[in-house]
Amino acid sequence: MKISIIISVSVLLMWMVLLTGCIANGGGAMQDNATEVLGPMTADLTVNNLDNEALAVASLWEERRVVLVFLRHYG
Amino acid sequence: MFARQQVADLTEIVAELDEAGVALAAIGSGTPEQAREFMAKFKFPGEMYVDPSLSVYKAFGLERGFWKTLGPASVGRGLKAMTRGFRQGGSAGDLWQQGGLFVLGPGQQLLFQHRNPAAGKQADLNAVLAAATAP
Asked: What SUPFAM superfamilies is this protein classified in (chain B) (predicted)?
């Protein structure tokens, strides 16, 4: 009985490790440097500056080129 | 920890971006106060904005999820970052939200896009620099 529980738990753990590895890698192909045109996805969106004032996010690149980094969290 | 690592990496290319007239800006998921503290502590060399609602993250198709933050691959990258001297601080913002990097503008041009599939899997900065400084 104990052995079957140990085997079941081990299999479950292995499956979880494999599954999370696949999810974490997410297929990988998410980088692309081809020139494209932004869709209307950001048209109405805003971000706040450090004075907590809202501004259109599209204004960040409307008249200039910008490297825009999305951070995970401040940690 | 990965945000700190990313700031350190971006600091290395900011002079070349400046020379090419390309701006550097970041969006975080915390509050303006948390962003100010982060900027002061880690000397982010660009503009900083916040999106606590995550609506802009979502519009750009960025990933979010528990396993994307704490999956084995992310933990491995975390250990690697620790060997470079980066340490995990207190969380400020959405812990499960993943980041990304885009080169945009002027106008509606999208010159480079990278969505981190999991924590710590960041864009290749040589490719970023090439896209950002291309005529």
From this structure: Thioredoxin-like
Question: pLDDT band for position B35 (50/70/90)?
Answer: very high
- Asked if the Cβ–Cβ distance from A72 to B63 is below 8 Å, we say no
Q: Running DSSP on this structure, what letter comes out for residue B97? A: B
Domain containing residue B11: CATH number = 3.40.30
CA distance B127 to B125: 5
Neighboring chain B residues of A70 at a CB cutoff of 8 Å: 26-27, 56-57, 60, 62, 99-102
Dmax of chain A from CA atoms?
70
Asked if B68 and A64 come within 8 Å (Cβ–Cβ), the reply is no
Distance CA B97, CA B31 (A): 15
Q: Would the CB atoms of A48 and B25 count as touching at under 8 Å?
A: no
Contact at 8 Å (CB) between B56 and B35?
A: no
Instruction: Report yes or no for ipTM above 0.90.
Output: no
The burial class, CB within 10 Å (0-12 / 13-18 / 19+), for B11 is middle
If one counts the domains in chain B, the total is 1
A25 CB neighbours in chain B (<8 A) are 73, 117-118
Query: Which range marks the domain in which residue B57 is found?
Result: 2-133
Rounded average pLDDT over B30-48: 91
